[in-house]
Design a protein that fits this description.
Elements lengths: L1 E10 L2 E6 L5 E5 L6 H13 L20 E9 L2 E8 L6 E5 L5 E2 L2 H7 L4 H7 L1 E3 H4 L7 H10 L5 H18 L8 H19 L6 H54 L9 H31 L6 H6 L1 H34 L9 H48 L3 H39 L2 H87 L9 H41 L9 H21 L3 H32 L5 H27 L2 H7 L5 H41 L2 H40 L3 H16 L4 E7 L2 E6 L4 E2 L6 H19 L7 E4 L7 H14 L5 E5 L13 E3 L1
Parallel strand pairs: 3-13, 3-14, 8-12, 12-13
Antiparallel strand pairs: 1-2, 1-4, 4-5, 5-6, 6-7, 9-10, 10-11
Helix pairs in contact: 6-21, 7-21, 8-18, 8-19, 8-20, 9-17, 11-15, 11-16, 12-14, 13-14, 22-23
């Protein structure tokens, strides 16, 4: 059976993923977090169901809430090609099995396809990772027998579950040193009931004494109840006073404050009215300042000092002002280009040759040739190693055959002897039989005594020849078998010689290819040297020459970029010089350091000059309007000042600071007086009077605690009295009925009977478990020794012969080295322990292969292996792929060399 395709609709990080044409020896390669373990878990879920929420295995549902599940395609199953589809539905998912003939089946068909195997057994034998390889030292004989039984019989899983259930039932019934099992508990009850029964025999009449004590307890209980009620009322009152104490304390403080202070007088909305007046005053003062400034400006606007200069040069000044924006932009571009040129010059080296497209194509071609040569060299080396290895293996086989094969002379002699022996006995037998037939005919025709005698003699002679022939037949058969065996060996020898010739031809072809590759590499080196000479580079590096070319290319391109930038800079400089020359020809009647300051002067002066010409006629009228507005504002400011003084007088203060201080005092007084009214409404006069008896809250709390302690003492006393009354009532009732001794005796024998029933149940369960275990033992007799023998062979091959045997000693695994030294698994190195684990797995797979030809799935299980161990492991897996499909997940680059490119799937 093998998996040929995996289609993931939604599982973990995978969504709508498809993996087709999965090979017999398939590797999935990907970095950490690439999803390798998720694909392995997906295969488990499709075959055996999604993990339930009660299990510790993650369900791997998509985080985005998309569809959950997928399908896998299996070939070479018991029913042919099938597609198993499992989607989200019930706890383990809804399953549909698509048969090759178009029929669709459900969950029940899976057992027929993959066999009677559950998920845990599959993961224990066929599917594993590095964590599974580290638990080999924990395996006991019980685990081996369980896996052999679970995979050896139909319905064996039910036998295992039944055995576990019976063992659990026995543990629940009895344990030698346990306390909770039923029989242990019942033994305790029987012992206690027996002691009570014996104690009852010593009891005497106490009836009168009990009645007297009961009356006394009842009277005491009534008195305690009355006292308890009184205390509860006092505690409730104190609880209310404790809750009201913070309010009372606040009320008392505010009430004393009201009695000692006088009420503050303040005009209503005084702060708002003051701020409104201040705002108006500030606004009008700002307007007054602006109008005075405007009046001053209007008075000075008639004087313009540079009227003649602007009148003479108005056209040139307008041009310079309008062109100044473009001048600034060109100046920015100029600085930017100059900075870029300086930067590139500082980091660029001079190159002899400009970089061209042909040079780029030439470099890329050389890089591609180098990559191709390296890949071809790697492929040739790998093929040579594999072919040489095959040649060595064939030579070993040929040497082994030639060691047992006869030479040509011996073979011909043995063959001629067999041919001679076949002729002589057969001829004598035929003659004797012919004589017997002739004598028989004479006897029939003549019917005389002599004819009967003749027949008898001939029969004796024929019998002698027959017996002699039989004696010589056995040696002749052995020689014939030896000849046939030698013929078979010779045919196999000739076949191996033919294969050796083919491999020799392949080796010769590979050597020719290797010579051609050396020539190509030499030509490539010459072409590379020529490229460096053309570029003017004398120091040719041995390795990484591409980085040197790349650096040369960057500097050459920077040189070309500098030339382009300098070409862009030249026209900008010419335009800037033309503008500056025109600016210098203009004699400006002011001294400024920068051209920007001169432009600002010209712009403002030209505007003033033009405004001066247009507004001289309206200037006098504007001055008159401003003077009238100033007079009105001054009158308004006088009115605002009078209103402020009136407001301050109402609060009986002299300035604004005192006014605001009085406002805060009035607001605070209003706030606490309102709070005092609210507290008086919440605290009734009776409550205030009761609280006035206490100086602080601690006194109330202390009194409450004292009352609660007294109440607790009473309640304890009541509980004691109640328990005493119950005991006395029960004892009185028992004595009145006269049944104490009878009840205890009945209870003792009842508990003893229950114990007997539990013992009988334990005996039956123990017998059933022993019968079931004997049945299970018979089902797997012979499999464990065979498994250990196969494991020994695999472990011997994986360790290069360092270990020769795997066995079980005192219910523990044990291995034997070639020096006949015994080791337990925990005494081995980590990698050797993992090799042992793999050997046992493959042995189990071999034993159950007939019933379970399932694929082997490995998730980076060999991370602790060195190169030698890894090579031995991969050779073993390649041999196994003819029996079981092998799917290998890894993130290690070194494992890729053991697989062909067609068998590697990148994630």
């Amino acid at each position: 059976m093998k998996i040929t395709s995996i289609d993931i609709i939604g599982y973990g990080k995978w969504s709508d993923a498809h993996f087709e044409k999965i090979a017999d020896f398939q590797v999935f390669f990907g970095e950490n977090e690439a999803g390798k373990s998720t694909i392995m878990a997906f295969i488990h879920s499709i075959l055996f169901g999604f993990p339930t929420k009660q299990q510790s295995i993650p369900r791997m549902e998509p985080k985005n809430g998309g569809p959950y599940g997928g399908r896998i395609t299996l070939e070479d199953t018991r029913v042919g090609k099938v597609i198993i589809e499992r989607l989200k539905g019930k706890a383990t998912g809804d399953v549909r099995v698509h048969m090759e003939d178009g029929q669709i089946a459900g969950e029940e068909k899976l057992a027929e396809i993959i066999g009677e195997i559950d998920r845990s057994t599959f993961e224990a034998i066929f599917s594993f990772d590095i964590h599974g390889l580290q638990n080999i030292h924990q395996w006991k004989k019980k685990e081996f027998e369980r896996y052999l039984l679970a995979t050896g019989t139909t319905g064996s899983d039910m036998l295992l579950k039944t055995a576990e259930k019976l063992q659990k039932k026995l543990d629940n019934l009895f344990k030698p040193s346990g306390r909770n099992p039923a029989i242990n508990q019942q033994l305790k009850k029987v012992k206690e009931s027996q002691q009570a029964f014996q104690e009852a025999k010593k009891q005497n009449a106490r009836y009168e004494l009990l009645l007297t004590e009961k009356e006394q307890e009842l009277e005491r209980q009534t008195a305690l109840q009355n006292e308890k009620t009184k205390i509860r009322v006092e505690i409730d009152t104190l609880t209310i006073l404790l809750d009201l104490w913070p309010l009372y304390k606040e009320w008392k403080t505010l009430n004393d404050k009201a009695a000692q202070s006088t009420k503050v007088t303040f005009p209503p909305d005084g702060i708002i009215r003051l701020e409104h007046l201040q705002l108006r005053e500030k606004e009008w003062q700002n307007q007054l300042i602006q109008l005075e400034e405007r009046q001053k400006n209007l008075s000075n606007s008639n004087n313009f000092d540079h009227r003649a200069f602007f009148a003479t040069n108005e056209a040139e000044i307008s041009y310079l002002i309008e062109a100044f924006g473009a001048y600034n932009e060109r100046e920015l571009q100029k600085k930017s280009l100059q900075q870029e040129i300086n930067y590139h010059k500082s980091i660029t080296k001079a190159t002899q040759v400009n970089w061209t497209t042909s040079l780029n194509e030439r470099t890329e071609q050389l890089k591609e040739e180098e990559r191709a040569n390296k890949q071809l060299e790697h492929d040739l080396e790998l093929k040579l190693n594999l072919t040489t290895e095959s040649e060595q293996k064939l030579q070993i086989k040929i040497d082994a055959i030639e060691a047992v094969m006869w030479d040509n002379k011996t073979f011909q002699q043995e063959k001629e002897q067999i041919d001679k022996k076949e002729k002589s006995p057969t001829t004598g037998l035929f003659i004797s039989l012919g004589a017997f037939v002739v004598a028989s005919l004479i006897m029939v025709l003549s019917l005389s005594i002599w004819s009967f005698a003749l027949v008898f003699v001939v029969a004796i002679v024929s019998g002698y020849f027959f017996i002699t022939n039989q004696k010589t037949t056995h040696p002749k058969n052995e020689q014939l078998l030896a000849i046939l065996e030698q013929k078979k060996i010779r045919q196999e020898w000739q076949q191996l010689l033919s294969e050796m010739d083919i491999i020799a031809g392949e080796l010769a072809t590979l050597e020719e290819n290797k010579d051609e590759l050396k020539t190509a590499i030499y030509q490539h080196e010459l072409a590379t040297k020529q490229l460096f000479l053309d570029l003017g580079i004398n120091d040719i590096p041995q390795e990484n020459w591409g980085f040197v070319i790349l650096d040369y290319k960057e500097h050459a391109e920077k040189q070309q970029l500098i030339k382009t930038l300098e070409q862009k800079l030249q026209p900008l400089e010419e335009k800037q010089m033309t503008y500056e020359d025109r600016f210098k020809k203009l004699t400006i009647p002011a001294e400024y350091n920068t051209i920007e300051e001169n432009i600002t002067f010209l712009r403002q002066g030209l505007l003033q000059y033009r405004n001066h010409l247009a507004e001289n006629a309206k200037l006098a009228e504007k001055i008159e309007q401003v003077t009238m507005q100033l007079d009105l504002l001054k009158q308004d400011l006088l009115l605002v000042g009078k209103e402020k003084q009136t407001l301050l007088a109402q609060a009986d203060v002299n300035n604004e600071e005192e006014f605001r201080l009085v406002a805060m005092q009035a607001k605070e007084e209003q706030k606490w007086r309102e709070r005092l009214v609210l507290l008086e409404a919440q605290l009734e006069s009776e409550k205030r009077q009761a609280l006035s008896k206490y100086t602080n809250q601690a006194i109330i709390k202390e009194k409450e605690i004292q009352l609660e302690e007294a109440l607790h003492t009473i309640e304890l006393e009541q509980e004691r009295i109640h328990a005493n009354l119950a005991a006395k009532n029960h004892e009185l009732a028992t004595l009145e009925e006269g049944g104490t001794f009878a009840i205890l005796m009945q209870n003792y024998y009842s508990e003893k009977s229950k114990l007997q029933q539990l013992v009988e149940e334990w005996t039956k369960t123990r017998l059933a478990l022993e019968i079931l275990q004997e049945t299970m033992q018979q089902l797997q007799v012979g499999k464990l020794p065979k498994t250990l023998a196969l494991a020994s062979e695999y472990f011997h091959d994986l360790t290069g012969g360092n270990y020769t045997k795997v066995s079980l000693h005192e219910n523990r695994l044990q291995v034997e080295s070639k020096q006949v030294v015994l080791f337990f698994p925990e005494e081995l190195s980590q990698a050797t322990k993992e090799q042992l684990y793999l050997a046992i797995r493959f042995a189990l797979i071999d034993v159950i292969h007939k019933d379970f030809p399932l694929p082997i799935i490995i998730d980076d299980g060999f991370v602790h292996f060195d190169a030698t161990r890894m090579q031995q492991m991969m050779q073993l897996l390649k041999k196994r792929k003819s029996k079981n499909q092998v799917i290998f997940f890894t993130c290690h680059q070194e494992t890729r060399k053991y697989f062909s490119s067609e068998d590697i799937r990148m994630l």
